[in-house]
């Protein structure tokens, strides 16, 4: 495997799909292409229906759903959380 900068969820999705046969048994894709979506998390079932190019990050304290390619907007979200919900950080 070659080195790759996985500093964003989009880069992580590309690395996983390129280098591994990634299977997330906690995700169900109905009329969605699982190769164009990424689901990170394991605590609960995540179902994607009819959507593409989505990133879903599911943790115990938060759920992030975003379009691939919008990873730079995470900075704005982080600032909002810092200002409004610092207990989540």
UniProtKB/TrEMBL annotation:
Matching InterPro entries, A to Z?
A: ManC/GMP-like_b-helix (IPR054566), Mannose-6P_isomerase_type2 (IPR051161), Nucleotide-diphossugar_trans (IPR029044)
Instruction: Please indicate which superkingdom the organism of origin belongs to.
Output: Bacteria
Annotated MannoseP isomerase/GMP-like beta-helix domain residues: 32-77
What protein name is recorded for this chain? MannoseP isomerase/GMP-like beta-helix domain-containing protein
Q: Which organism is it from?
A: Chitinophaga oryzae
Taxonomically, what lineage is the organism?
Answer: Bacteria, Pseudomonadati, Bacteroidota, Chitinophagia, Chitinophagales
């Amino acid at each position: 495997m070659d080195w790759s900068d996985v500093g964003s969820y989009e880069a992580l999705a590309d690395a996983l799909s390129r280098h591994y046969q990634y299977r997330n048994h906690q995700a169900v894709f109905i009329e969605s292409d699982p190769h164009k979506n990424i689901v990170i998390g394991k605590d609960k079932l995540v179902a994607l229906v009819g959507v593409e190019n989505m990133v879903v990050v599911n943790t115990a304290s938060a759920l992030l759903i975003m379009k691939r390619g919008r990873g730079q907007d995470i900075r704005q979200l982080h600032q909002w959380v810092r200002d409004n919900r610092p207990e989540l950080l």
